[in-house]
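Task card 7
Instruction: Convert sequence to structure tokens.
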Amino acid sequence: MNKRFTYAMLASTLAVPLAAFAQVTNTGTAFLGLLNRTGNFLNDIIIFLFLVATVIFIFGVVRYITAGGDEERLKEGRNLILYGIIGLAIMVALWAFVNVGIDFFFSSGTSIRIPGGSGVPQQ
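Output:
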């Protein structure tokens, strides 16, 4: 079988479910509906990753406090605390960059959106 034909069949098979999004949604177009669903999914992932980084940080703090002078456990606790802080910082930075980009390209007004929040207009 020709390699191009195989890729074309795969691409068309993967594109068929998008035809289901061809209906008009409340926002007026299927594309905006797809963007809204994708945005909601990504916001859920961001909240989950914030939770994971926070749990790692707290676990590191508990490990550090309960080390009892054991150097290996102290080092492990410090590393977990550091990984948790780095994870939280990366998530905040990425969330900010994405929201700035979305507001710049797709927003007609300015607003502050917190993942999982409803959005508060700026004055």
